Amino acid sequence: MRLVALNAPARQCGFQPGQALAEARAILPSLEAIEYDSRADAVFLSEIAGWADRFTPLVGLDGDDGLMLDITGCAHLFGGEARLAEDVTSRLRQQGIAARAAIADTPGTAYAAARFGGPAVVPPGAEPKILKALPLLALRIPPAIVETLERLGIKRIGNLLDTPRQPLAARFGPALLQRLDQALGVEEEAISPARPMPELVAERRFAEPISLLSDISAVLRSLAVTLARRLDERGVGGRRFELSLYRVDGVVSRAEIGSGRPLRDPRLVGELFNERFAALGDELDAGFGFDLVRLSILATDDTKPAQIDLAGETDGEADLGRLIDRIGVRLGQASIVRLEAGDSHVPERSGKAIPAVADERPSPDWLPIAADEPIDRPLRLLARPEPVETLAEIPEGPPIRFRWRHASFKVARAEGPERIAAEWWREDGLTRDYFRVEDRFGQRFWLFREGLYGRDPALPRWFLQGLFA
Amino acid sequence: MPQADLTALRRDIAIIEGRSPILEGDGRLADDGVSLAAVDREEGARVPFGVAALDRKLGGGLPLGALHEFRCEETRATGSLTGFAAGILAGIVAAKRRPILWIEEEMALSEAGLPFGPGFARFGLDPAKLLIVRARRPEEALWAFEEGLRCTGLAAVLAVIRGAPKALDLTASRRLALRAGTGGVTGLLLRQAGTPEPGAASTRWRISSLPAGTMDGFAEGVGRPAFRAELEKNRLGPVGSFDLEWHHDRGSFATAAAADSVARPAIPSYRPADAPPVREVVAFRKAG
């Protein structure tokens, strides 16, 4: 077992990451070690990333122990860059997290300054001066290259800057110079945000944390009014809204709502969130209160001008849209669906459910049957075909008795078989012979025999799949 | 005198006499309909079953903008229960041309499966008109049911609930009935394995299956779906038992004609003591 990470006192004792635990214990028997759990660390880091978006919506993960925040245009909200850096570290310290922060014009320099002892704020243009004194590892280059360079006597980034570029590129490939250029700002580098970037954001900070649901609703309403104005300017409406509640102690609660139609009306946004809160129940823990409430719009869509005909049909449709939204928010968007015809003959795949919240309407290509044909598909299909025990007169024929869910049914009439073969590209599919079966009391079921006699290795098995009217 | 004039005249006379103007198949007026005063109290549009004897008892058909309850005693009869309701909904959709909110509670769903699009298409109820909601608990199902009754964009709301959950007590039933009455949306409450309980529904039905009716060219096979619909409660008064079959080609019910060609099943032994007696029902009065 080896050491992975060390706290400050352990580092002062001279231990190194990568050192064997047994060796370290031999030097210092009182050394406390906790088993490394990379997954828990990753979860924790992404939680901190979620918290950090109170400073800027653009938060990216940086390795497995760092965060990269793009604070372009955000610093003035916190009283300048130095104040912002101080704010980040002091808030983390209050939560018991040791952290270093550095602000620079390029992600590469910020990385180097934060991790290798640079200043908290690197002034614009000062990158070469700051980087010069830092070790090569600060450039985010593979350790193997660092080792080779060190053997050549290039120990600091300053040495690298003094070395001609041509031989470096020839010897180490383009990656080394790319990292150097990125740190210097010669080459652009984008931060990929851990969470999707919202299209519009409105937020409010509180000196005195709020915790009452009614207060949150009121704040939400006023944020929605602000956003409605901006949506109006753009001529769009929001399809997905997210409310983020930042608790004083660093926990962030988020609630998301989706809407079938582009939404702008603050009252409707408020109503949908109220449904969401009702569904959440006690899960929303205010603790010591929230000091930042943010309403983000994750997705927008063009609003179609409403057309009101004389019969007032549009009212009904809008009302229906609101109902679908409310049910989707309260019970989950997957719990309200429309039925769409699937393109398969196998019953399980011949009908699909698509979320009703999605705007697209199912294509109306359901096939009605001829007037003189009996109804040959059941009204209800069981979640999966249930095995039944059967007794048949002749092997190929319909059963004369069957047992389903511990009850015995005597077949009075049967119609079939209707042979449905699985698509040829499916290897697991067996041919099915379907029978419409009626028992003595007139209850009608859809049974099938899976597999053919003599051809499939196992004996054919019988299943009940649906209930007829 | 042409038939149309005669029919109009008969209707006028019926109204003067204070009877409901229900016409029999041959255009003659039925004379044992409910009184017009009762129909007036229960104002509003109705969807006829297309079976004179039944429509007469309901004052012209199933009232829209009201709560109706349908129950089946055993889970395996859910197919018939669903079919009977689907037949009614086909009539409502034809009249109102709006979608239907179809709510399934998880318990009911795991017992009897999900609505199957191709089945509904063949039955004669357009699956594109259905909005299906899956509720985890009866409380959620009833919440969605009530919300649906308030929505002006819907033709009807249907919920399938298993047994008799606590959430569905008399108070809840009253609230739903009131909601249906004010909103104009028709509510169908389907109770799988449900017992007759006091409720505020305008009508309550017990649905069981009957051997399928014959179709031309399908004398031996399983033909038209048939039901026994026992009207257990009717705010207008008359109750009764009706053997009906569904004609998917016409989109309406008719009196089950299967009685002669198919042997009647023995009366099941599990019938509750208070179930109405089984008897022959004749749709049209004898002439003279």
Describe this entry's structure for a reader:
The complex is a heterodimer of chains A (469) and B (288). With 469 residues, chain A is an alpha+beta fold. Chain A is built from 13 helices and 14 strands. Chain A folds into four domains: 36 residues, no CATH class; 143 residues, no CATH class; 110 residues, Dna Ligase, domain 1; 88 residues, no CATH class. In chain A, the strands form four sheets. A six-stranded antiparallel barrel of chain A has the order 9-10-11-12-13-14. Chain A has a four-stranded antiparallel beta sheet with strand order 3-6-4-5, sandwiched between helices. Chain B is α/β, with parallel strands linked by helices. Chain B has one domain: P-loop containing nucleotide triphosphate hydrolases (Rossmann fold, 3-Layer(aba) Sandwich). In chain B, 31% of the residues lie in helices and 25% in strands. Chain B is built from nine helices and twelve strands. Chain B has a nine-stranded mixed beta sheet with strand order 6-4-7-8-3-9-10-11-12, with helices on both faces. The longest helix of chain B has 19 residues. The C terminus of chain B is likely disordered. β9 of chain A pairs antiparallel with β5 of chain B, so a sheet runs across the interface.
